Amino acid sequence: MDLHFGDSKPTDEERAAVDSLLGPATSAWEGAEDRSDADLRWARGGREARERRDLLLPGLHAINDRVGWISEGALAYLCRRLTVPPAEAYGVATFYAMFAVKPRPAKVLHVCTDLACAGNGSAKLCADLEERIGAAGSAADGVVWQPSPCLGLCERAPAALVLQAGTPSDTVPAQRDPRLRDVLTPGPARLPDTAGDTDETVGGDTGGAGVTPIRADLASNGAVVTPLRAHANGSSAEPAPRRQAFAVIGPATVDTLVEAATAPEDAPEEPSAAMAVPQAGQDGLMLLQRIGVVDPYSIDDYRAHGGYHALRTAFDIGPAGVIREVTDSGLLGRGGAAFPTGRKWQATASQPDRPHYLVCNADESEPGTFKDRVIMEGDPFALIEAMTIAGYATGAHVGYLYLRGEYPRALHRLENALTQARLRGFLGDDVLGQGYAFDIEIRRGAGAYICGEETALFNSIEGFRGEPRSKPPFPVEKGLFGKPTAANNVETLINVLPILTMGAEAYAAIGTGNSTGPKLFCVSGSVERPGIYELPFGATLGDLLDLAGTPTEIRAILLGGAAGGFVRPDERDIPLTFEGTRAAGTTLGSGVILVMDDTVGLPRTLLRIAEFFRDESCGQCVPCRVGTVRQEEALHRIKDRTGAEASDDVALLREVGQTMRDASICGLGQTAWNAVESAIDRLGAFK
Amino acid sequence: MTVIPLQLPRRLLEFTLDGEPVRVPEGSTILDACRAAGKDIPTLCEGDTLTPKNACRVCVVEVEGARTLAPACSRRAEAGMEVKTDSERARTSRKVVLELLASSTDLSTTPRVAEWIKEYEAKPDRFGPDAARVNETPKIDNDLYVRDLDKCILCYKCVDACGEQWQNTFAISVAGRGFDARISTEHAVALPESACVYCGNCIEVCPTGALSFKSEFDMREAGTWNEEAQTETTTICAYCGVGCNLTLHVQDNEIVKVTSPHDNPVTHGNLCIKGRFGYQHAQQH
């Protein structure tokens, strides 16, 4: 490999951003400015240099977070550091919606225009914004705004997210990668090397010595208020540099949006995660029991509320015992595919190839889905514990938590949770003194729905474009880095805790024969109490709608998100189970229940779904790349037509849809026509 | 001369292909089995010198019991499998895939595609006059070859040939996403500023003519390109001692293009800039 990096040089800021992740360049071979005698004598390169490819995405984030966009010089420097061909890195950078390779302001306002927000006035919001700060995509006053796919804030629709690039927080150790250990930022978050036996160094609460007091350092919205370290090149006399910050606004008005976009640091505090759980604090909840009850920043509070009982049980019964319990519980994957979790773990654990990996899929991007966000924000330690158990059962020593890039608050809380768990010996070389080593790395996505597909997610972590791989081989055999991998959704993992604490038998007694346990539902749209609901499997659609409170005039209900299907308001008897929805010819998907009245109109909603798939198709295979475009064009043509006037295009949609379903590589293309088909067949759209 | 490499004998496995039992060596793809049985399946992104990317989906076949269709080029045959290559479902998908491609890209120089469009009764016009197209103009930024991305179907073959599968130069990649994805250098710089070494191995594998010799591109523009009037002579490159086979495509006593036989054990179809483009000294002027 003879790489060609061009002549563009990084600015000091860009270099500092990359160095904050990778440490300073130690040789001219990887981008140091001065060439030393040793550089002339010994080349750097080869396999060892190339094996850091998986740091490409974190590197792109580091640049984008600091500068707001990725210049030629910055990309070339990052490529030099990681021995990655610039053309490939450019292909990766342009794959993600949150990165820009053209200059743009440091503040980017993402305004959700997806289904739930569209039903709550996002169109008007966008029109007002256009008047106040200009057209989408055009920069004005240091801000650029853009319409966004679902931000996972559906209970607070219409919602928006402001991200401000700037110098980062000193308090959060971004990585736990051994290759990066030496370069962790010095500061209060610096981990002691003896992460296993720190009980004596840590006080009883989050403020103990050595524990990251993240919360103290963060304003309500993540703006950092600690003093800045001197800049790498000593230019500390400059005016106060811009800080990284974010603001989540919902429900948004144009005034709050403009305000937040002007000064994200000063935006009002985001409501507690418990606000998204109407049942919060009720008895009998299993998955949501701690949301709004525990302090999400405190591992002690988590333990006081039953935390880490399940992990101790796991160590008591051993990995095979855990797999047996999970298999006997009948737990099916909650990410949408409903694969038996026990079988997946068993298949991974029994692979002779080493190492094994555990991946938690927290790239929650299905329009209408926000359950994983609420769990990660409200009960982050539960996910850490569940991942530890899953890693233990499958023989993995490293777990990757792939978190969608649009969830900054969940990121902060999870990072804090990881730091605390390490300090207390719940993660590290010797978890709870049981001789089992396990640690978790968070990897942030950067705006790509397709990365929720597990093999695309692997490619994304590995530093390649997030394009799905063909199966077989399946991840349990060849997954992340080509090794046996168990990939599970957040909600699936969380279910393992009650399985171990109450036993498989008691767990399996909940729900129906084939769908056991509790299920989370993301209810949004025109309901009185939108939010996450936990119900045992077996409840009907009507039961859930009664809980959430529906108006009398409902046009349709979307089950399972954009990749799911519509049902009629009179189909309240559909049991919300995997087999019940299948028997009714629809799907449970990720548990989305989106209630629509006539505000937006069905053709417009279908068009939004089609736009979503067109935008989010990775472009790898023809049926999906071109098919999603043709689907959108046809829906555009017939948005005001019915009957004979629409019948030709409906026939065209059917044929293209069938081809996408049959011939696409992955689930995105295969389901891109589901919702439209169900609207035509079930709701009688375009009749 | 074709060299048959010695290897361990492979076990045969039996499966059903369009109702007939067939036996193929273990590890064969469904496409291998189809070809051995004399069946013609359209392919675009499959290449004899590359690992299939299975991106074009024009070779899909129906495997009994599978939820979706399978790409024949990369799905390995399994014992007991029942495969239908000509079912209604497979034919419909192939037809629509051809329509989707032909309605968005210029397939005028793609070998055999006109024949397939006729065979599958594909109607690329059905998406209407406003159907979005790739809409690219040819990139002519060097004297050796032209990138006409309007003809590109994103089969990834050039990326694979430039990158890890052959040349290890990594000058190009897919950039952007979805319908806006394009084969590109970093920041879309011109080829002379990129890592390109002009080996032309991307041209060798391009299935649509999106990548072509400047000489071929110019002659096509001028209307003088005439494959029927061309002769092909395979010789050995004289530049160095490796002994690469060159196939010289000659029209009107001028070399208009250089390829290399894909089954040649030295080149596998690959050359370097000298073998591929360094033929001017042979021309008589």
Automatic annotation (TrEMBL), chain A:
Keywords annotated in UniProt: 4Fe-4S, Iron, Iron-sulfur, Metal-binding
InterPro entries in the record: NADH-UbQ_OxRdtase_51kDa_CS, Nuo51_FMN-bd, Nuo51_FMN-bd_sf, NuoE_N, Nuop51_4Fe4S-bd, Nuop51_4Fe4S-bd_sf, Soluble_ligand-bd, Thioredoxin-like_sf
NADH-ubiquinone oxidoreductase 51kDa subunit iron-sulphur binding domain span: 603-648
One Pfam family per UniProt: 2Fe-2S_thioredx
PROSITE patterns: COMPLEX1_51K_2 (PS00645)
Ranges where the record places region Disordered: 168-204
Cross-referenced PANTHER family: NADH-QUINONE OXIDOREDUCTASE SUBUNIT F
Entry similarity comment: Belongs to the complex I 51 kDa subunit family.
Protein name as catalogued: NADH dehydrogenase subunit F
Native species: Streptomyces camponoticapitis
TrEMBL record, chain B:
Protein origin, superkingdom: Bacteria
2Fe-2S ferredoxin-type domain segment(s): 11-89
Residue ranges of domain 4Fe-4S ferredoxin-type in the record: 143-162, 187-216
PROSITE patterns linked: 2FE2S_FER_2, 4FE4S_FER_1, 4FE4S_FER_2, 4FE4S_MOW_BIS_MGD, MOLYBDOPTERIN_PROK_1
InterPro entries in the cross-refs: 2Fe-2S_ferredoxin-like_sf, 2Fe-2S_ferredoxin-type, 4Fe4S_Fe-S-bd, 4Fe4S_Fe_S_CS, Mopterin_OxRdtase_4Fe-4S_dom, MopterinOxRdtase_cofactor_BS, PSI_iron-sulfur_center
Pfam family, one: Fer4_7
Domain 4Fe-4S Mo/W bis-MGD-type: 230-285
Keywords: 4Fe-4S, Iron, Iron-sulfur, Metal-binding
Keyword Zinc among UniProt keywords: no
This protein's name: Respiratory chain oxidoreductase
Phylogenetic classification of the source organism: Bacteria, Bacillati, Actinomycetota, Actinomycetes, Kitasatosporales
